[in-house]
Write a structure and sequence with these properties.
By secondary structure, the chain is an alpha/beta fold. Helix content is 43%, strand content 21%. It has a domain of 172 residues: 3-Layer(aba) Sandwich (Rossmann fold), CATH 3.40.50.
């Protein structure tokens, strides 16, 4: 079964492809405070869960979302049309690691650091797309505890592959980005995300799929559930943080972020 299709199905119940609630998402977006006629870039945008509400909240804002997943981008365009912002956003099917345009006043990348080879490469890439004085919204995992052998096995990670929280923020500093407002995902947010991921896939497999697709979806849900519950639950954290460019002096529309 195609991985992009499987991921799109798994995120049906939780379009935010990260353990972040709607309330937390909107608090973070409020802290970005883009300029009235600003431009926003979302790298690894998925179905537009971050980009679309940000553009919708600011009538003069325009945005670009980049992702490799055709199904996710189709969903993003549908959601943009429903939100009435289709004329102010562009969705591009491309590799975010090699796509070039800009600069942008706000750059978003949540849960897509694998595209750039990890947090250090991601933060450098985001800074490269950013207008001087702009802001970044960055989200990635870190080890909250451990990691135990079970957590490493569940995530398919090597020791040292993910930092702890201070290490993750230190990477931002090395990229010339200063942490402002941040959010640490709660256990409830994690559990809701994981149950939605496995539940949506199981629901689709048993209610809509047949043959090889049915079995592939069920196996993916079972494997993911086991890796989560027996592996990284309680040890893997997730940070979403607003980062300020420390090398520019553009005045943004400040709301206290």
């Amino acid at each position: 079964m195609d991985r992009a299709r499987l991921s799109a199905i798994a995120h049906r119940w939780h379009p935010v492809a990260a353990p972040v609630s709607d309330a937390s998402l909107h608090r973070l977006l409020d802290r970005l405070a883009p300029p009235p006629q600003g431009r926003v870039l979302d790298l690894g945008c998925g179905s537009g869960a971050w980009l679309l509400p940000l553009v919708a909240a600011h009538p003069g804002l325009t945005g670009v979302g980049v992702d490799t997943s055709g199904p996710a981008l189709d969903a993003a365009r549908d959601r943009a049309a429903m939100a009435g912002v289709l004329g102010r956003v562009e969705f591009v099917q491309a590799d975010a690691a090699t796509w070039r345009a800009g600069p942008f006043d706000v750059v978003v990348c949540v849960g897509a650091t694998h595209v750039f080879g990890g947090p250090a490469g991601t933060l450098a890439a985001l800074k490269g797309h950013l207008r001087p004085g702009g802001r970044v919204l960055f989200g990635d995992g870190f080890w909250e505890a451990g990691p135990s052998p079970a957590a490493l096995a569940g995530l398919g990670a090597e020791p040292g592959e993910l930092p702890d929280l201070p290490g993750l923020l230190a990477e931002a500093g090395r990229a010339g980005l200063e942490p402002g407002y941040g959010h640490l995902s709660t256990r409830a947010e994690w559990d809701e995300y994981e149950w939605c991921w496995t539940g949506a896939l199981t629901d689709w497999a048993l209610g809509e799929a047949a043959g090889a697709d049915r079995e592939a979806a069920l196996e993916a849900a079972r494997t993911h559930r086991r890796q989560w519950l027996e592996g990284y639950r309680g040890e893997l954290g997730f940070l979403t943080v607003v980062l300020h460019d420390t090398e520019g002096s553009v005045v943004l529309h400040d709301t206290g972020g």
